[in-house]
Amino acid sequence: MIDGRLARGERSRAAALDAAVVLATESGLDGLSFNQLAERLGVSKSGLFAHWRTKEELQLAAADHAEARFTEVIVRPALHQPRGVRRLWALHEQRLADIASGELPGGCFFCLAQFEFVARPGPVHARLAGALERWHVLLERLVTEAVELGELRADTDPQQLSFELNAHGTAAVYESRLLPASKVYAHARTAALVRLRGLSPRPELLPEA
109-140: per-residue pLDDT in tens? Predict the structure, then answer.
C-alpha cells in the first residue's frame, strides 16, 4: 500500500509538471502559479503544496522536468542516427519538429524562460543558464565528433557552429508564433543545412538544401 501511494504521488507530481511546462510557455515561468496550475489540473492547491512549498521550488522543478522532456523528445531520437554530421543534423531537425508540433503552445520552454529571466539573477536564472550550457556542450561534442570522422572540415569551430545552430532554432521559436510558421521552419531548416553542407567534405550525407 505504501508503494502504491508513492507511485500515485509520483504520477500526480509528473502530471503536474507536464502541465506546468505547458503553462510556462503560455503565460511565462514567472506567471506560473499554484492557483493557475491547480485550476488547469482540476485539483486542490493544497495538493500541490505537498510537492513544492514555494513558487520558486515549482519553477525549478518545472525547469528540470522541461530539460528531461527535451532529452527524451529531441536528444535521444537524434542520437539514434550515425555519429557525425548526420547526428548533428538530426538534432536540429528534431528540435524544429518539436517546436512545430504544438505540444508546447509557446514552442520551447527554455527559449521563453531564458528570455524572461535573462536579467534576473537567482536560482531560476542559474538553472536556466545551466540547461543552456549543457545544450551547447552537447552540440559542441557532436560537432567535434563530426570533425574527427572527417565529416566536417578540420578548421570547424565547435563553439561557433553550436552558437549558429542554436540561434536558428531559437529564431524559429518566436518567429513561428508571429509570422507564417511554415516559412519560418523552412528558413530555419535551410539556414542550418546550407551551413552544414558548406562545412562538410561529404555533403552527400545530408539532404539537399
Answer: 999 999 999 999 999 999 999 999 999 999 99
Q: What angle do CA 61, 23, 115 make, to 5 degrees?
A: 75
User: The C-alpha cell of 34 is what?
Assistant: 499554484
Cα atoms in the 13 Å half-sphere on the side-chain side of 129? 10
Q: Which of 64, 12, 63, 10 is nearest to 38 (CA)?
A: 12
Look at residue 49 in the predicted model and tell me its pLDDT.
Answer: 67
Please state, in angstroms and rounded to a whole number, the distance separating the CA atoms of residues 101 and 103. 5
Written as one letter, the residue type at 107 is G
CA proximity to 167, closest of 83, 95, 67, 70: 95
DSSP-assigned states of every residue in the chain: -HHHHHHHHHHHHHHHHHHHHHHHHHH-STT--HHHHHHHHTS-HHHHHTT-SSHHHHHHHHHHHHHHHHIIIIIHHHTTSPTTHHHHHHHHHHHHHHHHH-SSTTS-HHHHHHHHTTT--SHHHHHHHHHHHHHHHHHHHHHHHHHHTTSS-TT--HHHHHHHHHHHHHHHHHHTTTS-HHHHHHHHHHHHHHHHHHH-S-GGGS---
